[in-house]
Specification:
It is a single chain. By secondary structure, the chain is α+β, with helices and mostly antiparallel strands. The protein has a single domain (15-200), classed as Pnp Oxidase, Chain A (Roll). The chain is built from five helices and twelve strands. The strands form three sheets. It has a seven-stranded antiparallel β-sheet with strand order 3-2-6-9-10-5-4. The two termini are 35 Å apart. The mean pLDDT is 95. Bound molecules: flavin mononucleotide.
């Protein structure tokens, strides 16, 4: 099939929309929306976010001062609130109050949990590095708080219950998750075994 060379840019993949919250030096909570988020370690559990360091984000300043943040996962019914937290700055507005959300102090770090978000990770900053325009901040997850409605009976987070917001940078729109495309670590293993069996023949 014909292929076309595209303009150079970093983002071609959809990402999960997250909300990072932190306290400022006066103890006021602020939050902003991020699409640059990834799981970066299983042991210890760590997540990494990337925040534009050239554009004076209040949340980044607060995170660097407190060495802590909470990563919250909104659901598709919270698109308006998530989008607002990503287009207004805590330097100009009390964003969390404006959307009618409330906060509680995290138990393990000095950062605010947004009560209305169904899933929150309390994180302690363990590493920062600046690459190009963005500072990557890695947080070790110290506590996870989830609404029971998004869990199965074994305490696993079920994405179809969470209904996360997927951000598409290419078309600048939000999507829900689609249906299941397959099992992970199964079709690949079956294929690998079939190839190995063929080799033994
Ligand atoms: C969908 C969406 C995704 C965003 N992702 C990021 C991101 O990954 N990194 C970043 O630095 N800013 C991102 N932003 C922009 C910030 O959320 C925005 O600049 C915000 O106003 C910063 O607020 P603050 O000054 O209170 O920290 C995103 C905004 C939206 C709407």
């Amino acid at each position: 099939m014909a292929k076309k060379e595209l303009k150079l840019r970093a983002v071609v993949a959809p990402t999960e929309t997250v909300i990072v919250s932190a306290y400022d030096p006066d103890g006021k909570a602020d939050a902003c929306t991020l699409a640059f988020y990834m799981v970066s370690s299983h042991v210890p559990p760590c997540v990494t976010i990337a925040i534009n360091a050239t554009q004076k984000r209040k949340t980044l300043k607060d995170i660097l001062e407190t060495k802590a943040f909470v990563l919250g996962f909104p659901n598709v019914r919270q698109v308006k609130e998530a989008d607002y937290l990503g287009v207004e700055s805590g330097y100009r507005a009390d964003k969390i109050a404006n959307i009618g959300f409330t906060v509680s102090p995290a138990q393990t770090v000095h950062a605010p949990i947004i009560n209305e978000l169904p899933l929150s990770l309390e994180c302690e900053v363990v590493h920062t590095v600046t690459v190009g325009s963005h500072m990557q901040v890695t947080g070790e997850v110290k506590r996870i708080l989830a609404e029971e409605s998004i869990l199965d009976e074994n305490g696993r987070i079920i994405l179809e219950k969470l209904q996360p917001i997927i951000y598409d940078e290419e078309e600048r729109l939000y999507l829900g998750i689609g249906g299941k495309a397959g099992d992970a670590f199964r079709p690949g293993i079956e294929f690998k075994k079939a190839l190995e069996a063929k080799d033994r023949e």
